[in-house]
Design brief:
Elements: H1 5-23, E1 28-34, E2 39-45, E3 50-56, H2 70-86, E4 92-95, H3 104-114
Parallel strand pairs: 1-4
Antiparallel strand pairs: 1-2, 2-3
Helix pairs in contact: 2-3
Family: Belongs to the universal ribosomal protein uL18 family.
Protein name: Large ribosomal subunit protein uL18
Keywords: Ribonucleoprotein, Ribosomal protein, RNA-binding, rRNA-binding
């Protein structure tokens, strides 16, 4: 029986997350979600189960409401790096979920690195 695209995505997401949890215990997780219209990112403390910081293209103050392109992803990446610094977080591991590391996801990660967040 062939796997559907959704099943393959879920398998890839779980494989990535489980590997990251084994190798990066104790660090914050920078989790990315990309939809057809928006991109969002959260800085999660898995030990306490809390979201420390978040950024999304849905925020009006970023000036990219409703845009889902590389420029918008770059602004979201810069915003999360700034908010992470305010929260006192300097290092995190990048959880791309089931998304491939290219395009918008890569642009977001690169912008977060340029903003001073060590991924």
């Amino acid at each position: 029986m062939a796997n559907t695209k959704r099943q393959l995505f879920i398998k890839r997401r779980l494989r990535v997350r489980n590997k990251l949890r084994r190798t990066n215990a104790g660090r914050m997780r920078l989790s990315v979600h990309r939809s057809n219209k928006n991109i969002s990112v959260q800085l999660i403390d898995d030990v306490n189960g809390k979201t420390v910081a978040a950024a999304s293209t849905l925020e009006k103050d970023l000036g990219v409401v409703g845009k889902n392109n590389i420029e918008a992803a770059t602004k979201v990446g810069a915003a999360i790096a700034e908010r992470a610094k305010k929260a006192g977080v300097e290092t995190a591991y990048f959880d791309r979920g089931g998304f491939l590391f290219h395009g918008k996801v890569k642009a977001l990660a690169d912008a977060a690195r340029e903003g001073g967040l060590k991924i």
